[in-house]
Prior knowledge:
The chain has 174 residues and is mostly helical. Helices cover 60% and strands 0% of the residues.
Amino acid sequence: MKVLLTLFFFSFFSLSQSQSAVFDVARSGSLEDIEKLYRENPEVIDSVNDSGYTPLILAAYRGNQEVASFLAKRCTTIDYISGDGTALMAAAVKGDHFITEKILENKADPNITDTKNTTALHYAVMFGHVGIVELLLEAGAVTSIKDASGSTVHVHASRLQNEAILELLNNTKL
């Protein structure tokens, strides 16, 4: 019995350490770091930290492209919604074309909304990221979704007088 308790304690301690490490690696670690953690415990990449973020969301916010690409291919939480939205929303806010593309390639839903009923497309429009808007539209992002203020992406683009984005939106049938 004592041996079983000892094994349980060390297993739990090891899992807790790898969960903590995965968030640090997501923020600023290397591809080699995330590969090592994944080999040790594949489930760790689907962890959620105390602030409600997954490693993929953190990697997207920090622009950690290699780690985000690795995570997007393997995690089961690609569409996880934190208090600040999804990994796709994070990439859209940051204007990171590479990470946005990798997340979309791995079947993220571009029409998920956050607590403010805002989509990744809303964020890309509001931050003026023309290339991200184009990627999201190609992935099937819907332009008619209204955020909590009642605004569609067309309304936001008009307010910002972003002609390039307005042209993209006007040439989309969704």
